[in-house]
Amino acid sequence: MSDKRPTLTTRQGHPVSDNQSLRSVGERGPATLENYQFIEKITHFDRERIPERVVHARGTGAHGYFKAYGKIGNEPASKYTRAKVLTQTGVRTPVFVRFSTVIGGKDSPETARDPRGFAVKLKTVDGNWDLVGNNLKIFFIRDAIKFPDMIHAFKPDPVTNRQEPWRFYDFVSQSPETLHMVTWVKSPWGIPANYREMEGAGVNTYKLVNDQGMAHLVKFHWRPKQGVRNLTAAQAADIQTHDTGHATKDLYDAIARGDFPEWEFCVQLMADGDHPELDFDPLDDTKRWPEDQFPLLPVGRMVLDRNPDNVFTETEQSAFGTGVLVDGVDFSDDKMLQGRTLSYSDTQRYRVGPNYLQLPVNAPQEKAQAHTNQRDGQMAYYVDADAGNKHINYEPSTVGGLQEAPRPDKEYHQWVEGHLGRYQTSRTADDYRQAGERYRSFQDWERDELIANIGGDLRQCPEPIQLRMVWHLWHCDEDYGRRVAQTAGIDLEKAKALPPLPGKPAPHERRAATTYTSGKVEEAAPAK
């Protein structure tokens, strides 16, 4: 690259020497509130479009309910969490779910090759819990500071107003962590047949905390009882010729005729810790936890049984945030989760307004009615009616108003220690290995679709991007790289001769992985 290019700066004009990493305490986090460069970047990104969402603009929603089994696998759920929504049986928790595509605008076709949003608002007796995820179990990037760049690369060119393959692969070719997700999205899994026959996943790593203050790492998953079905590019193109909203119609019609879609809610659990025996960091959202080592354990079931009365007031004004958790579910130091937690709710305050939680679709259920000292702001239309003395909008007070809730008997305390700086994960072997494993796991027809889709895209890209992408794919799996090169007419030997990306570990520099074979969850120790 030319060293004569202008230097990247913040909007304050400060030179940016690391545009890849949040400031965090040590390599694994947590992130810190004084991440000025990130906060400036992500809050500006949240405000790039009005009034529709910057991402997940095209979508539909439905109401329903969730019921917990009271167990996680064969053990009481209370062993792992004190969240009532997961431990109490017989309780019908209201839910609202919004399904969506990611990149396209509000009127874009639902046949687009794109991850699908799967956002669930559970209105529990302890307040709202938003589980905001996708249909695929991973994501493109593992550090939230890269999110605006990723979306800009995937969105239409600001000059031509077209989604250009070279922009997508230009970003991907410089970010090996994306290879796993690219392998999923460019396969038939990138076009679900509809929203009912689609998996959901929280994607990020969270923690479950029990009443003893002990934590386990957790991944959340939704498995459709209807099964999973995806489309080929040809099938999607055929549907798009006569219907750009086929998935919305399918969901609406199914609920209207009483064919209520259902998902089983499952978790994967892992003892809290960094797990050096694994070739990947459990907090890295570009990686899947192998299900033969960390099985999916059933927790409950969700049924969608009611369509919205009004699309705008319920579906479009529904607002979700990854920071909306209930007691017994907690954050991990997953850098995408920490960045999303700021970005999502910040977007809603900007897009819908600071009082978006007063809207019925977003407000908690009556048993968990909100009582705050927050006042005023755009579109405020009520003040908490039973907060005691209405004159007191502060706490503490001796003459009325609100008071703090009792603390749990044993709180979860995470020990945090490390040098503050900008870090990239050093455990990158699975950037290539998991993508290769996914390629080999596909059925023949899925591999054929994957090769045709990526090969067709790369034919439209400049040679440097073509060569680097083939280099990456060949290191994921030799057959993968060879077939893409043949399909796109790219010189495989020329691609293989490229050096590793500057500043990135070479794919062959992999330590031998220690197989994690226990298949069970270790007992977590109380935090220090």
TrEMBL record:
InterPro entries: Catalase, Catalase_AS, Catalase_clade1/3, Catalase_core, Catalase_immune_responsive, Catalase_sf
A GO cellular component annotation in the UniProt record: cytoplasm
GO biological process entries: hydrogen peroxide catabolic process; response to hydrogen peroxide
Keyword match Disulfide bond: no
Catalase core domain segment(s): 9-403
E.C. no: 1.11.1.6
Cofactor(s) needed: heme
Active-site annotation: H56, N134
Molecular function GO labels: catalase activity; heme binding; metal ion binding
Record key words, sorted: Heme, Hydrogen peroxide, Iron, Metal-binding, Oxidoreductase, Peroxidase
Highest taxon of the lineage: Bacteria
Record region (Disordered): 1-29, 496-528
UniProt binding sites for heme: Y344
Compositional bias (Polar residues): 7-23
Keyword Calcium: no
Enzyme class, spelled out: oxidoreductase
CDD domains named among the record's database cross-references: catalase_clade_1 (cd08154)
Task performed by this protein: Decomposes hydrogen peroxide into water and oxygen; serves to protect cells from the toxic effects of hydrogen peroxide.
Family: Belongs to the catalase family.
Protein name: Catalase
Source species: Noviherbaspirillum autotrophicum
Lineage: Bacteria, Pseudomonadati, Pseudomonadota, Betaproteobacteria, Burkholderiales
